[in-house]
Amino acid sequence: MLTEIHVVTLFPDWIRQLSTIGLTGKALSDGRITLRCFNPRDYAAGAHRSVDDRPYGGGPGMVMRPEPLALAIQSAAADSDQPVAVLSPQGMRVDQRSIERLAGRRRLILVCGRYEGIDERVVDELIDEEWSLGDFVLSGGEYAAAAIIDASIRLQPGVLGHEQSAEQDSFSQGLLDCPHYTRPEIWRDRAVPEVLLSGDHAAIKRWRRRQSLLRTLHRRPDLLQNVSLDETDRRLLAETEVGE
Ligand code: SAM
């Protein structure tokens, strides 16, 4: 169970904002999980406390200097045997399975890069794993760290209102979630599917499962390769749309 989140960042105020927002923020602000930031600038020597420098070999941009960053990482990882993860577009792509693993750690240690990135020797010396949000480039690791922190906290017991709400979410059972509706019954001439108003719980469960299967088939057929469909699922997929 996650009890500590340590983030190495040049923008601690940005990360601390997370404890003010939503259910995951509540878990951070009521002490269930402690969030601490370690700013390399606090570990930088010299009057200017400089944390970046020009890249060897020339070229645009700046690189995070190794020593202040390394000292901040070592503080964040002190008294812990948990892996140190850096956010990087070159890392492993984060998915729900990896979030489940990260969420199971006692301490989540996340290192946010800025500028052109961090001095590679720090990666060699102190980093155990690299995580990417996807094939695009952010201006800082804080955006990716925030996503991982939120996704990990919402899996902690008692954080979400209803015990099952994380279980029904997309990816947790390997499928996309079904569509959801709330009042009014008719909105701009669009009606809520009748079955959801029927009170027939078995029919509603069947409808939701079928919608999940269909959505996954149409939007993310790749996911179906890792889900074992039983006979009922195959029958649901084969049903016609009539009666919905
Ligand atoms: N020069 C680097 C490259 O092309 O691989 C990109 C550096 S980026 C401008 C600055 C920082 O943002 C990175 O060090 C990393 O921490 C973070 N970052 C950027 N894109 C990311 C992504 N897709 N996933 C996770 N972190 C990312």
- Second rung of CATH, namely the architecture of the largest domain: 3-Layer(aba) Sandwich
Please tell me the overall pLDDT: 95
Spatial order of the strands forming the largest sheet:
2-1-6-5-7
> How many DSSP E strands?
9
Radius of gyration: 23 Å
The succession of helices and strands, N to C, reads: EHHEEEHEHEHEHHEEHHH
The CATH H-level superfamily of the largest domain is SPOUT methyltransferase, trefoil knot domain
Structural category is alpha/beta
State the low-pLDDT regions, or none. Answer: none
Could you explain how this protein is built, in words?
The model has no long low-confidence stretch (mean pLDDT about 95). The strands form three sheets. Strands 2-1-6-5-7 form a five-stranded parallel sheet. It is an alpha/beta fold. Helix 3 (about 65-75) runs parallel beside helix 5 (about 120-125) and helix 4 crosses helix 6. The chain folds into two domains: about 5-155, Alpha/beta knot, CATH 3.40.1280.10; about 170-244, Trp Operon Repressor, Chain A (Orthogonal Bundle). The protein contains ten helices and nine strands. Helix 4 links the parallel strand 5 and strand 6 (about 105-110). The longest helix has 19 residues, at about 200-220. Bound molecules: S-adenosylmethionine. S-adenosylmethionine binds near residues 113, 133, 139, 140 and 144.
